[in-house]
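Please, structure for the following, as tokens.
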Amino acid sequence: MVAPSSPFDAGSFEAGLEVLRSRFGLRPRMRDDIRTRTGYLAGDDARRLREWIEAASDPEAKAIWCARGGYGALRLLPRLETARLLHPPRLVVGFSDATALHVALNQAGLVTVHGPVVTQLSKLPPEALDHLEALLFGQVVPGGPPRAGGVPALGNGVLGTGVIRPGEATGPLLGGSLTLLAHLCGTPWRPRLGGAVLFIEDVGEKPYRLDRYLTQLRLSGALDGVAAVCVGQLTDCSNGETGFDDPGASGAEVVRRLVRELDVPAIDGVSAGHESMNLALPLGAVVTLVAPSGLAEGPPRLLFDQGATT
């Protein structure tokens, strides 16, 4: 267990540890100072970096699980030492601020898991826990098998609710928090999305800010050659302020419009992000996005051709 970002609620953390023990049969381990608080950070950079390096260097650790998101992981990138995680490979699980870690690790060739942080685990519905178990413990069958009507088997993919632009594309799944992806532009960790299926989600961002982030990614060249786009949960991203912003706009509408302009297959409504139904995704693994043009082709879906452990 690591806390590379913000401090966390102790009760939610303990409840999450119990889920790892009783539901998954895992043995959580952590430093004694993981509950340190330094303002909006879970301890200063030195503490969080030592914690990360110890976890990444531990040959017995099968996974590194983030306690919470918030802010702070970005500050660790220059000294992340991604090679420590490759031999033997370890899973890294988290989302939101952990997007900074995912981007760096995926660029180094590691598959990571965009999934619930420890403090969220006890709030997940059974379906999300079952899906997470199937993905983490290697129950993914490459390429399927699908259930009836094109619905992927448990842990083998996720469904969307809408088609932004029909089509089908295969490539590595990359992305995470749209805010973090945009903030990485202009750094050595700028997202490299050529040939990739891009996944994006966010929370608490006004529609014009989502526009700004996607426009920044496009102007930076990060979206050049992207193969497809999968939009997850855009939680609390409707407009609620006065001023120049359109009071009737929603983040989902803005994102759909801008994604449609990329002229690649795209779906939205995938249950991954800042809500209780946060389905885990294997970032860095090969997936196939299916955006059907009609009901006969089944639902919009993201199929895991590779799992997190294959």
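The domain at 143-304 is CATH 3.50.30.60 (Glucose Oxidase; domain 1). The longest strand covers residues 167-177.
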